[in-house]
Design brief:
Mean pLDDT: 92
Helix content: under 10%
Structural class: mainly beta
Strand content: 35-45%
Largest sheet: 6 strands, antiparallel
Radius of gyration: 35 Å
Number of helices: 1
Low-confidence stretches: 1-7, 20-32
C-alpha cells in the first residue's frame, strides 16, 4: 500500500520539474537579442506586401524587408533623413515614409543604421511625374526662346514641340528654357523626365495669326464705345499690341475679314492675350465670333498683367467660317485693355 502512494507523488515531482524547465526555456527565448549587422532584401508597399517593387515615388509609405532591423535608429534616402516619427522597425521590416524631396530624380539609395551597423540598398525612388503649368510666350518663330514653367523637371530627358525635338537652353526643377524648332508652327509641347512625360494643357503657336504686331492682311478694325490704336506701352510678344481705350461701358474692339470669310476647316479654337488697364481686375470681356453674342465666351481681365486665353470653338458656337471677331467689355465698366497674339489654332 505504501508503494502505491509513493509513485503518484514521485510523478508529480517530475511534472513540476518539467514545467519549471519549460518556463525557464520560454523566458530565455524571449530575452534573446539580435546583434547581427542589418540586411535589406526588398521593398514593397504597405498595402501590397508580397510584391517586390523595382521603384517607388517621393513621399510614399514603404515597407523595407530584411533582417536584424529591430534596433534601427536612422533611415536615410540619399542622405536625406526620414523623420523619427515616420518610421517603425521590427526585426524583419521597417515601415517608413520617404521624404517629399530627394537629391536625385531617380537614384536615391536607402541606408539603414542600427545599433550593430548599417547597410545601403541601391534603389530607384522617383520624383513625381512632371507638372506642366504654362509656357511663355504663347507663340514664337524658329529659334526664339520659350520658357516652360511647372515642377519636377530634374533629370530632364527632352522637350518636343509636336514630334520635333527642341534645343534646351537652360533647366531647373521648375523652369526650362528651350528654342522653337525650325519648321514648327503650332501644336502641343511635351516634357520628358525619368518619371514620365507630360503634355502642355494649351497649344503653342498659331495656324492663323490675326494680330501679332499688326493686323493680318485683309482684316479691318471697327471699334465702338471707344477707340483702338497700335501701342508699345504693354506688349505680350514682339514690339506692338493693340490698345482699346473705352469712352464708357460695354464698348469693344472689333475686327472684320474682307470677303471671303476665313474657312475654319482644320481649326479647333481661338487664342488671345489680354492685359488689363487700371480698374479692370476681374472685369469681363466677351469674345464673340461673327457678331453672335449669344454664343460668345466670357473671360476675366487681370489688372496690370497679361493673361493668355485659349478658347475651343465648342465654346464659341462652332463657327464654320469667321467674318468678324469682337472683344467686348462686358461688365459695364470703363475699361482700357490691351490685345496681343490673337488668332486661331
Amino acid at each position: 500500500m505504501k508503494q502505491h502512494k509513493f509513485y503518484p507523488a514521485f510523478l508529480m515531482q517530475i511534472v513540476v520539474i518539467l514545467m519549471v524547465i519549460f518556463a525557464v526555456s520560454g523566458c530565455k527565448k524571449e530575452t534573446v537579442k539580435v546583434d547581427g549587422p542589418p540586411s535589406i532584401k526588398s521593398v514593397s508597399y504597405l498595402t501590397d506586401r508580397q510584391n517586390v517593387l523595382p521603384s517607388v515615388n517621393y513621399g510614399e509609405w514603404i515597407l523595407i524587408k530584411g533582417q536584424n532591423l529591430k534596433t534601427t535608429f536612422k533611415v536615410d534616402f540619399n542622405n536625406i533623413l526620414a523623420a523619427d516619427s515616420l518610421y517603425y522597425a521590427d526585426d524583419s521590416s521597417i515601415t517608413v515614409k520617404i521624404p517629399p524631396t530627394l537629391p536625385d530624380p531617380a537614384n536615391n539609395p536607402i541606408t539603414v543604421t542600427t545599433k550593430y551597423g548599417s547597410v545601403t540598398y541601391n534603389f530607384k525612388i522617383l520624383q513625381p511625374k512632371p507638372i506642366f503649368n504654362f509656357f511663355s510666350p504663347v507663340g514664337g518663330d524658329a529659334g526664339e526662346t520659350i520658357t516652360l514653367s511647372g515642377d519636377y523637371f530634374d533629370g530632364l530627358e527632352g522637350v518636343k514641340f509636336g514630334n520635333m525635338t527642341a534645343t534646351i537652353v537652360s533647366k531647373t526643377k521648375t523652369e526650362i528654357k528651350v528654342k522653337v524648332p525650325a519648321g514648327f508652327t503650332f501644336g502641343n509641347i511635351t516634357i520628358t523626365t525619368p518619371s514620365g512625360s507630360v503634355t502642355s494643357p494649351k497649344v503653342f503657336g498659331f495656324q492663323y495669326l490675326l494680330f501679332g504686331d499688326a493686323a493680318a492682311s485683309g482684316w479691318w478694325s471697327g471699334p465702338w464705345g471707344g477707340s483702338t490704336a497700335s501701342s508699345t506701352e504693354q506688349v505680350r510678344r514682339g514690339t506692338h499690341s493693340l490698345k482699346f481705350t473705352a469712352s464708357g461701358g460695354w464698348g469693344g474692339a472689333k475686327y472684320g475679314k474682307n470677303y471671303p470669310d476665313l474657312d475654319m476647316t482644320g481649326y479647333t479654337g481661338f487664342k488671345v492675350s489680354l492685359y488689363g488697364g487700371p480698374g479692370t481686375d476681374k472685369k469681363k470681356v466677351k469674345v464673340i465670333m461673327n457678331g453672335v453674342g449669344g454664343k460668345g465666351y466670357e473671360v476675366l481681365l487681370k489688372e496690370g498683367a497679361w493673361v493668355d486665353f485659349q478658347i475651343p470653338f465648342s465654346n464659341l458656337g462652332n463657327p464654320a467660317a469667321i467674318n468678324t471677331v469682337t472683344l467686348q467689355e462686358f461688365s459695364g465698366n470703363k475699361s482700357d485693355f490691351y490685345i496681343d497674339d490673337m488668332g486661331f489654332y
